[in-house]
Amino acid sequence: MIALLRTTLLATWLVLKPVLGWFFxxxxxxxxxxxxxxxxxxxxxxLALVGPRNRLIxxxxxxxxxxxxxxxxxxxxLIGGTGRLARRSAQQxxxxxxxxxxxxxxxxARRQVAADQSRDMARSx
Length: 125
Description:
Blueprint: H1 2-31, H2 39-50, H3 55-72, H4 77-124
């Protein structure tokens, strides 16, 4: 009975997660120009729920990088300088995200090793 309930809840969550994510993304985009609603928070929550593996999000990230590259190469100094600044900022954010991901994977592996060791010690006693 509990296993059936758990399976049903998991299946429901797997369907609702992207729906909620896209809902928050839309709310975030609507709220970006508005002074009362902080759209960035909703946008980040939505992106976290939808996930970086989503085809549309990956496409958007790649094309944003291409636009920043073209913007940085613009001959007009104000636009080119702003583009270079935006491109360096995007690279820094990407670098920090990668480092955080590596740290999290190492942390997860260390916790798993510690759990395995404590389980082995409990069995040997």
